What does this fold into?
Amino acid sequence: MMRSFGILIANFFQKMFMEKVVLVNLIALPILLIGILGTSLSSIYNPKPVKHVPIGVVYESGSQQYKPSLEGFFADDEVKELLIATEISSVSEARHKLGEGAYKAVLIVPEDTDLLMSNGEDVELTVLYNEKDTIEQSIIAVTLSTLTDATNSLRLAYEIMPQKENGHQFVFEQLITDSDISGQPKTTAMNYYGVTMTVLVLFYGLSFSINNIHQDFKGNFGVKLRISPIPPIITIISLFTSGVLVSFAQASIVILFSKFVFNVYFGEHMYIIFLITLLGSMFFNVLGLLLGVYINNRKLLNLIINIGIPVMIFIAGGYYRIDLGLFSFISPVTYIQTLYFTYIYQNELLLPYTFTILLVITTGILLSLTMLSKYKGVQVNEDI
It folds into this structure.
């Protein structure tokens, strides 16, 4: 049994290494993702030809809890190199001073911001400019975009630390300011996207697992596999293990690259992060295994899944968030993100989430085994 398992694993990696394009994509994809994003985010902290751009900030009623966090952002030394923020009492006064040229832009924090954030709802910060298409506007827009990225993680903070007073402010400050906790290095919006890119690559494992099923059950090798004496459970475990190893390797590249190149903080112990990464790779690959076995002979469903996965990867990457409200618990991406952020900021591994993922993995393998056992006999007759 172990010999058959080893043969299937070796066969998989032999095929993969023989296709140089596939091999390059597997290695280059995670580095490219984090490299492009990291460079663009980090570049905002480099010295700029234009510095100390004056902007005004208006805090409308119901934003007092959020105010200290925002003040902390503008008080950061590297942000102060780019922007000099001054509080203005009202929107009308801000518009007047903007028209006079006292400020290059005005940031307006809307009413009931605290309530909206505590409910996990979107908060839209308004930025008014006195001129368009200027260097100053570009600097303001890019710098404030990191504020938006950091604010995304505040939603998670309310889920992760509802019992911690000012938990959202704690997370926000860890994202944008220097910390003196255990010599923790400086963190930026790269923390949010370092984790998000890792989850994106893990999510890609779902697609990779589906394609793996399709390739192995087509052509001569697929026929031999289906009529071979190798037990179905060995076939399932080998396909699953192959996908997990590839996903884990890709995600590890993202983690190590972002940690050592962009100084992203992943908590006190990296082995916990790699454990979560292994769980995530198993989680998404078992979902891919289930879908791959189920849709392999269903053309319409296969087409829908193949179109839907890139869209979901786009959403998983945080480029466009869909608020599922009460049904947000069904999001597999949220599960894995929460595991990462809880450990990074709370130094705690969520055991209920971990056991749930292990249960899903076990159930998925058993269901795949059941479907493949029935599916193999039918396919042998069809192919022969």
Observations:
- Confidence is low (pLDDT under 50) at residues 44-48, 153-188, 376-384.
- The radius of gyration is 25 Å.
- Strands lie at 53-59, 83-88, 105-109, 126-129.
